[in-house]
Every structure is written in structure tokens, then in C-alpha cells.
């Protein structure tokens, strides 16, 4: 333990997370599903998706419309689709519950979809697509969020930060995984700049008049921008449609309205796709995985990094040495046990 | 007919395209499939995807490894996947041939995939996702191309311009459609700047040393960049994996090697996904389409444009008044009939 940090093993992170969540009213099943993902976030040094999220989870528990104990129910929509109703609990237990069915359908049909409906969502998508890759499948996941982001050419918020994640299984290696927001930056980064009174880059957000701004306060009152101009904006719209309208759940604007100022994590749906390369390719499967390895090699041999490499490096460190949590944050978390 | 342009009806564009292609050795079936898409491109005033493409098609016919008469063969891979082998002919007849099967599988399973293998490809993807939307389905299409684009953080070409297209069906309106390259810009735009000795924006490409360049000639010898930094680069990799390795076809680097300097259009695979909202949603389908309309309204009511709106405006004009083709281009095309 250093002066400014507490060092915890991954088991300690998991146990602490479970205790905090159960103490605040989560069922054991929900607490375990959430603690699992928070431990993964802390392990991979995604600080905003580690134990810090316990504060946000408990805030949502205390202030939102979240049901901390609802058990997910399953509907086999078709041979290619499973839908999981979270009944206004957190998304993660629904994902865990539906995953074996998604995997079975993908292995049968080659391609399958899982819709999670009516779920509160706070977590990164990479743990979910990694779980799909660990089954030897290719995964895609996406969700809306709260409408903070303007469409290209516009000035009023319509889209959420709308993340999309992808995974490709690799033999004897961590999967190829990316997970990014279609907003130019995370909303938390703008909030951080606002708290510190620091200017933001001009392509992050617009002020209320619809002009690019470097003033973080003005940005929070205005609208965030998507990454990549009209192309990022098009992707953000696609994510609203696929993980909102297509699965009969809320768009980011509807989700923000549902929150009604509570400041809870967004409640909406999630769409997850799985592809089984063995069904697509039959015997050619192994050759094709090697072809993908050659692609990765052509990226890394020139000194470019694969997405998620930084996380995987952190993971190795954390498994060996545990994780460091700022002492102030640790104290804030312990207070949630009082 | 003006001095500098020839005005043609859409039927005339289609007939001219068929004649040029058949005269140069295409089977009638391939000529009709290609002429159909070239007519759509000219109609929507996508100049580089209109009759101009006849020059490129004939160049590929005369210089590449394309089979101008091969008939596509179908393989029902699974209840969710159809694979069409183009046998080194152009992609479009394969798409037409496989589409009814993709639609049937999507209506049965809710989600389905079509892989087209061993196809030469020159066309935009929006006509294909529009065809899917006209069946009331949601469509996604993607292909690799030739490896001209560096990964984020690298300097050597790995990815193609790797386009992705998406469609959402709208009641009584043109579908919501986008179709964009994951490169910062089309390669043709850099070539145009090089011919005109004009500088290019610094985020389009790198020179051979791996530094951003405004010199179009240096860019063509170096590497193009993706749009949207590391996020666009991640998407470009996903497209290599899904429409290359997953379907047992070439990556952009392998496709460029296969071309062996012929300068033909790329030969590789294509992945097309279709989702049936009626299977996902049952009776809630109509409500969900209205929810999507509200999303579109929230974009357009603030003066932002939906993707493809410019094309749809052009389409209206062209259906009424025909299309204008530059006289010099028209003469070049007529020479292909000699």
C-alpha cells in the first residue's frame, strides 16, 4: 500500500464490489454479474470502468427507477434471435443469462442476435464481446445512451454516445477487440475539463448556438459532436436504429426523457450479434484464422498497435501484482458500506 | 442537348450500358445486372458510379482476370447463411441471384447473411442495401478493396478503402441509407488532385516516410489514412475480417496481390446482412417504424440532412428530366462500341 493508493488483488476487488452492491440492495445474482465486470475494468486499468463505477451504480440504485432484484426472462423470438427482458434491472445479468442461448443459436445458424430490453446500462461493451470471442465466435455489440450528441450538420442533441464493440477470436492470444463511442469523446472527459476549468478541443462539442466551442461548460449545455464527421454521425444513427427501434426499445432521446433528471445510468436496450466462423467456413476455418493473424501481423510489424493492446498489457500486470486504487476513491467506496 | 453535355433518359443509359458491356464480351445476364446499377448511379448523380464506370468495367474486362460469362452458383450454408460463388465474374449478378434467398432466410430467422465469393467489384453498396430495404428489411453490406490505407499509428498500407453501407426501410419514403468508405477520402479524389497538381488536406494520406502530406503524388506512393483516426482504423480492420477472413475470401492486401498490377477493379468477397424487424418485433413493428421516423424528424427539423438526401433529390430530377453526361465522356463510351 503506497501513501496515495491502496493495492488490491482482483479477488479483493470482486468481493468489495459484491459487498457494496448487496449492501445497497442488489440481489446476489446482480451483484455478482456487476462485480465481475467491474473487476475486469479495474484489472485492465480502465479507471472509469473499474471500482469508480460502484459510486455510479449506487447513485442509480438510490435515485433511479432501477429494480435491483428483477430476474431476467428469456424469449426465443426465432431460431436466430433471443430476447432477454431485464425488467428494469441492470443489463449484465441479462447478458450472462442470454449468452449461452446466443452462442447455441450462432453455432446452429452461423449468425444470431440477442436483444436485451429494458435494462439499465453502465458498463463497457468489451467484456461482452470478449465473452463471445472466448466461445470461438465473432461478436458485435451496441447500445444507445442518453441524447447528448448532435447529428452532423445540426446543433441539437439527438444521439447518445452510442458505443459499438467488435471481437474476433484468436488462437492462443487475446481476441482482437475494439470498443468505442461514436461521440468524439466520452462525456466524462468533457465533465472533467469543466471541473478543472480547462479548454477542450474544438471538435468535441458545440455551444448552445451550434458553434464549435472550446469551453467545456458551454459544451455541456450545448451538444457533443460525433467522431469522424458525417460518417460517425451516420454510424450513431445506425446504432439508434439497430439497438433502439429494431429491438423495440428506447432511442437515446427517449432514454434521457425516461431518466427525468434522476442522473441515473441510461435505461434502454442492447443488441448483440454473434457469428460462428466454423459454420461460414467449415473445414477452411483454420486457414481463415491464420489469414486474420497475417492481417494483425501486417499492422503490428509496422509499429502500429492493435486496439485493446493497452488493456491486455494492463491485464498482465494486474493479474501478477494486483490493482492500485486511489485512497480517496477507496474511502468513498467504503462509505457506501455504512 | 447542350453544347458540353448529352442528355439521356434512364432507359437510354441502361440500353447504352448493356450494349457496351455485351459488345465487350459480357453475357447478357451480367450486362443487365451491371447496367442496372450504373443507371442507378447516373440517375442519382453519383458521377463516378454512373456511365463513367463503363470505362473501368471494360478496362477490367480487357486487362484483368474477370470471367465475363460465369454464372453464379448458390450454396445454402445454413438456415441463416447463403453463399454465392461468383466464379471470378462481377459481383452484381451474384447479388441479384442470392438476394431472394437472403430475404427468405431473414424472414424465417430474423437475421441472415449472404457471402459473395470470388467476385470482381466496382459498384457502390447503396443500391444493394436499398434493394434490401425495398423488401422491408434492414440491410448492411461491406467489402474490402485494394490495400491502400494505413492503420492508425502505422505508415504502410494494410486496409482497403473498405466501404460499409446500411439501410433502414421507411414507410412511404426513400429508405434511410448510408454508404461510406472507411478511408478518409476516395482514392479517386487523390488521383484527381494529383492530375491537377492540387494540394490535398493533411489528414487524407501519408508520404512514404509515414508523415502526413499535402502532396497528392506523394500520397499515392505512400498510404491513405482512414477517417476518424483509430476508430475508423478499427472499423476498417473489422471489414477486412468480416468480409474477408469470415467468409473465406481475400483481404485487401491479398486482393491487390491477385491483381498483379493489372489495374482491374478489386476481386474479393462481400458480406451482406439482413434483419427482419417483423421477426424481431411482431405486432410492435409498426410502432417501431414510427419511432424511427421520430428520430429522422429530430435530425431534419434542426436543418441537418439525412445521409443520401442529395442522391434522392437528384433521383427525382433525373426521373423527370433525364441525366446529363459530359460530351467527352459520352464519346469515350461510344468508342467502346467500335
Structure description:
2 copies of one chain form a homodimer. In chain A, the strands form 3 sheets. A 7-stranded mixed β-sheet of chain A has the order 2-3-4-10-5-6-7, with helices on both faces. Chain A has a two-stranded antiparallel sheet with strand order 1-11. The longest helix of chain A has 19 residues, at 91-109. Chain A is 45% helix and 17% strand. In chain A, helix 1 (10-23) packs antiparallel against helix 2 (28-43). Chain A has helices at residues 10-23, 28-43, 52-63, 91-109, 126-133, 187-195, 216-221, 229-245, 252-259, 277-281, 285-300, 309-321, 327-335, and strands at residues 5-8, 73-78, 81-85, 111-120, 138-142, 163-168, 176-181, 205-206, 223-224, 267-275, 323-326. Chain A is of the alpha+beta class. Chain A folds into 2 domains: 5-63 and 308-335, Malate/L-lactate/L-sulpholactate dehydrogenase, four-helix barrel (Hypothetical Oxidoreductase Yiak, Chain: A, domain 1), CATH 1.10.1530; 73-183 and 226-282, Malate/L-lactate/L-sulpholactate dehydrogenase, NADPH binding domain (Ribosomal Protein S8, Chain: A, domain 1), CATH 3.30.1370. In chain A, a hairpin with a 2-residue loop joins strand 2 and strand 3. At the A-B interface, strand 4, strand 7, helix 8, helix 10 and helix 11 of A face strand 4, strand 7, helix 8, helix 10 and helix 11 of B.
What is the subunit arrangement here? homodimer
**Biggest chain pair interface:** A-B, 69 and 69 residues
CATH names the topology of the largest domain in chain A as: Ribosomal Protein S8, Chain: A, domain 1
Evaluate the radius of gyration of chain A. Answer: 20 Å
Beta-strand residue percentage of chain A = 15-25%
Q: Give the proportion of residues in helices of chain A.
A: 40-55%
Distance between the termini of chain A: 23 Å
The total count of helices of chain A amounts to 13
Order of helices and strands of chain A: EHHHEEHEHEEEHEHEHHEHHHEH
| Total number of domains of chain A | 2
What shape does the CA trace of chain A take? globular
CATH architecture term of the largest domain in chain A: 2-Layer Sandwich
Q: Would you tell me the overall average pLDDT of chain A? A: 96
Structural class of chain A: alpha+beta
CATH-level-4 superfamily name of the largest domain in chain A = Malate/L-lactate/L-sulpholactate dehydrogenase, NADPH binding domain
Q: Give me the side-by-side strand order of the main sheet of chain A.
A: 2-3-4-10-5-6-7
Biggest β-sheet description of chain A: 7 strands, mixed
CATH C-level label of the largest domain in chain A: Alpha Beta
Amino acid at each position: 500500500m503506497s501513501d496515495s493508493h491502496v493495492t488490491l488483488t482482483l479477488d479483493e476487488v470482486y468481493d468489495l464490489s459484491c459487498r457494496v452492491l448487496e449492501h445497497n440492495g442488489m440481489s446476489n445474482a446482480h451483484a455478482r454479474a456487476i462485480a465481475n465486470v467491474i473487476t475486469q475494468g479495474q484489472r485492465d486499468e480502465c479507471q472509469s470502468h473499474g471500482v469508480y463505477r460502484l459510486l455510479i451504480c449506487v447513485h442509480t440504485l438510490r435515485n433511479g427507477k432501477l429494480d435491483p432484484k428483477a430476474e431476467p426472462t428469456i424469449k426465443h423470438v426465432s431460431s436466430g434471435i433471443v430476447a432477454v427482458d431485464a425488467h428494469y434491472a441492470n443489463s449484465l445479468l441479462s447478458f450472462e443469462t442470454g449468452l449461452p442461448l446466443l452462442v447455441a443459436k450462432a453455432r446452429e445458424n452461423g449468425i444470431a442476435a440477442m436483444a436485451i430490453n429494458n435494462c439499465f446500462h453502465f458498463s463497457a461493451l468489451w467484456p461482452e464481446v470478449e465473452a463471445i470471442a472466448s466461445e470461438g465466435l465473432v461478436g458485435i455489440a451496441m447500445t444507445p445512451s442518453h441524447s447528448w450528441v448532435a447529428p452532423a450538420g445540426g446543433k441539437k442533441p439527438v444521439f447518445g454516445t452510442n458505443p459499438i464493440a467488435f471481437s474476433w477470436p484468436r488462437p492462443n492470444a487475446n481476441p482482437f477487440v475494439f470498443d468505442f463511442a461514436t461521440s468524439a469523446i466520452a462525456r466524462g472527459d468533457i465533465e472533467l475539463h469543466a471541473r478543472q476549468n480547462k479548454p477542450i478541443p474544438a471538435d468535441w462539442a458545440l455551444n448552445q448556438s451550434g458553434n464549435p466551442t472550446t469551453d467545456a461548460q458551454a459544451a455541456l449545455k450545448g451538444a457533443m459532436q460525433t467522431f469522424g464527421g458525417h460518417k460517425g454521425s451516420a454510424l450513431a444513427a445506425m446504432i439508434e436504429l439497430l439497438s433502439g427501434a429494431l429491438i423495440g426499445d428506447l432511442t437515446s432521446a427517449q432514454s434521457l426523457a425516461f431518466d427525468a433528471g434522476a442522473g441515473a445510468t441510461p435505461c434502454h436496450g442492447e443488441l448483440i450479434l454473434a457469428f460462428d466462423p466454423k459454420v461460414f467456413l467449415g473445414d477452411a476455418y483454420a486457414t481463415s484464422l491464420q489469414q486474420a493473424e497475417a492481417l494483425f501481423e501486417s499492422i503490428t510489424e509496422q509499429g502500429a498497435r492493435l486496439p485493446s493492446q493497452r488493456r491486455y498489457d494492463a491485464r498482465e500486470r494486474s493479474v501478477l501484482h494486483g490493482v492500485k486504487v486511489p485512497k480517496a476513491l477507496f474511502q468513498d467506496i467504503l462509505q457506501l458500506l455504512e
